[in-house]
Specification:
With about 250 residues, this protein is α/β, with parallel strands linked by helices. It has a single domain, classed as Rossmann fold (3-Layer(aba) Sandwich), CATH 3.40.50. The chain is about 35% helix and about 25% strand. It has eight helices and seven strands. The chain has a seven-stranded mixed beta sheet with strand order 3-2-1-4-5-7-6, sandwiched between helices. Strand 2, helix 4 and strand 3 form a beta-alpha-beta unit. It is globular, with a radius of gyration of 18 Å. The two termini are about 35 Å apart.
Length: about 250
């Protein structure tokens, strides 16, 4: 992918999520669950310096502030509207501990080192994922940790099963490193169409480059198949991963 294509992709991602900032939280039950689960897996640290990549509307940020009341924070997102919404969602009393930065997490421009870097549901949007990991690991203090979450290769199995009747070979295997814990949980959206609308309302419906969308008839058929078999219940597979910087 050329530089201009990469920049175009980045702009699409930033615009897509930024446009959903005003309504994101009302449709982010899954994202809040994942943020809470990630927070519970984070290490106990005293007065840590923390970098958050891709804060969105601040769902994870709130958990970080609660988990580390004596911490100092650099909270970032590629989208200015998302960053503004996150800032709005954080209490005024916590603002003095936070350095807000609009930044592409795949190309961080910070000189500080951190005890903990957190990236919740961000890495799957990166173009060069392993290079981004290497860059972020280089920003850790000795003994520091990077914790991140990504969708597993079997995320949304009910919908993928229906899509395979229309479009084979959709799945991509993730090869990112880290100590891994898996969680699978199911949400009842009421219908497959509502599940797809929820993805759209949270900006998460941007397809991979080169993806050829289904025709309206194919989409309707896939929705019908998924509804008949699963009645709007869709499962999330989330991988919680941790990497250590050698002390």
């Amino acid at each position: 992918m050329s530089f201009s294509m990469r920049q175009n992709r980045k702009s699409k991602i930033a615009h897509r999520f930024g446009a959903k900032a005003p309504i994101y939280d009302a449709h982010a039950a899954a994202q809040e669950h994942i943020a809470q689960s990630l927070a519970a897996r984070l290490p106990d640290l005293k007065a840590p310096r923390i970098l958050e990549i891709g804060c969105g509307t601040g769902l994870m940020s709130k958990h970080l502030l609660e988990r580390y009341p004596d911490g100092t924070f650099t909270i970032t997102d590629i989208s200015a509207p998302m960053l503004a919404k996150a800032r709005e969602n954080i209490s005024p009393g916590a603002q003095q501990k936070i350095d807000w930065r609009q930044m592409d997490g795949e190309a961080p421009d910070l000189l500080q080192q951190y005890d903990l870097i957190v990236a919740n549901m961000v890495f799957h949007w990166f173009i060069h994922k392993n290079a981004a990991l290497k860059s972020l690991l280089g920003m850790l203090c000795p003994g520091g940790m990077l914790h991140y979450t990504i969708p597993g290769p079997c995320n949304f199995p009910e919908w993928r099963e229906a899509l395979r009747t229309q479009e084979p070979a959709l799945e991509k295997c993730e090869t990112l490193p880290g100590e891994t814990e898996e969680e699978i949980f199911t949400i009842d959206y009421g219908s497959t169409l509502e599940f797809l609308r929820t993805l759209k309302r949270t900006g998460a419906d941007l397809p991979e480059e080169g993806y050829h969308p289904l025709s309206p008839d194919e989409m309707q058929q896939a929705i019908k198949i998924c509804d008949e078999k699963h009645a709007g219940k869709i499962s999330w597979q989330i991988l919680y991963r941790a990497l250590h910087h050698a002390a």
